[in-house]
Specification:
The chain is an alpha/beta fold and 310 residues long. The protein has two domains: 102 residues, no CATH class; 149 residues, Restriction Endonuclease (3-Layer(aba) Sandwich), CATH 3.40.91. 58% of the residues lie in helices and 10% in strands. It is built from 16 helices and six strands. A six-stranded mixed beta sheet has the order 1-2-3-4-5-6. Helix 1 crosses helix 11.
Length: 310
């Protein structure tokens, strides 16, 4: 493992820990649960079957000494406090994306239909874990939230890496007098990117993260940025890169493709030896932290692949 990776990993994990601490500190789970035990909700009219609550689920909630509102969604409650849908979703261990995928059109626009969907999950979970404790079931919210926080953290790593590369490219282009300021301002009305005096444009986005197009708008270079240092996801990130570069090569077979990766596992390195969609690989952390590596990459990109006169 290159020497610069271990300090980077330590720094990232410390940052990750701080991120999770802040999420736990700012979470409203206890406040939500307390508000649902309020006496004002104890006289609601519950049509159990209409709200998707099974008899086994209801009985399990009684045995575990839950108020009905603590574990089952009611349309009157969500009408007053729509944010509590997240409470029931997390209690049901339903990721936000997952709920969106299984939610019907009716549940998207009708509170009762949404309650029925959530209560179906909650009834099943309660009836199959009837011997659990109140506390353990309520703590499932942290389990699901933790999974979502991890996803947010991973996404933030990718965004940070992309922004760092974008700033690096922009700084180099400006310092070398390559930027057409008027054309860049016009480009910014619709896209994030840079317009160069040669007519070439650099577009920042996704799939690929950076598109370089010449003055005829032919895709001449594509860059994928993989900032994560998690070895477990290296193969997945490689698959995403290949998918992106396959599209680029279909658009222009002569498009030069560059992968900027923070870490490559031995299995990924072996695959790269025979992978035809990826023309070049650079160590992202080295480029961001070492001036010599950064200059080497930038000079090659702008001089040889973008054909800029520097």
């Amino acid at each position: 493992m290159p020497e610069h990776i271990q300090p980077e990993l330590a720094e990232r994990y410390l940052s990750r820990a701080g991120f999770f601490w802040r999420q736990v500190r700012d979470s409203r789970f206890a406040d939500w649960q307390k508000s649902l035990c309020d006496a004002s909700w104890q006289k609601l009219d519950w049509n159990w079957s209409e709200l998707g609550i099974s008899e086994a689920g209801r009985q399990a909630s009684v045995n575990l000494r839950f108020f009905s509102c603590e574990v089952f969604a009611h349309p009157d409650v969500l009408s007053v406090h729509p944010e509590l849908a997240d409470y029931y979703r997390l209690l049901a261990c339903l990721p936000n994306k997952g709920l969106a995928q299984i939610k019907s059109k009716a549940a998207s626009h009708n509170t009762t239909a949404l309650c029925k969907l959530l209560n179906g999950f909650l009834s099943t979970l309660l009836s199959t874990t009837a011997k659990a404790s109140r506390e353990s079931l309520l703590n499932t919210m942290f389990a699901e939230a933790g999974s979502e926080w991890q996803g947010s953290w991973v996404n933030s790593i990718g965004l940070q890496a992309s922004h760092a590369v974008e700033q690096m490219l922009a700084k180099y282009a400006v310092e070398n007098g390559l930027v057409d300021l008027a054309a860049t301002a016009k480009l910014a009305e619709k896209h994030s990117g840079l317009a160069l005096k040669s007519g070439t444009i650099l577009l920042f986005g996704s799939e690929p993260d950076v598109q370089c197009r010449n003055k005829e708008r032919v895709l001449i270079c594509a860059i994928e940025i993989k900032g994560s240092t998690d070895k477990a996801g290296a193969q997945t990130r490689l698959g995403e890169t290949i998918k992106s570069f396959t599209k680029a090569k279909l658009e222009n077979p002569r498009c030069h493709t560059i992968l900027l990766a923070s870490v490559l596992t031995p299995s990924v390195k072996r695959q790269l030896k025979t992978e035809l969609k990826i023309d070049q690989v650079f160590d992202l952390l080295a480029i961001l932290k070492e001036e010599g590596k950064r200059s080497e990459f930038l000079n090659e990109l702008f001089k040889f692949h973008l054909r800029e006169n520097i």
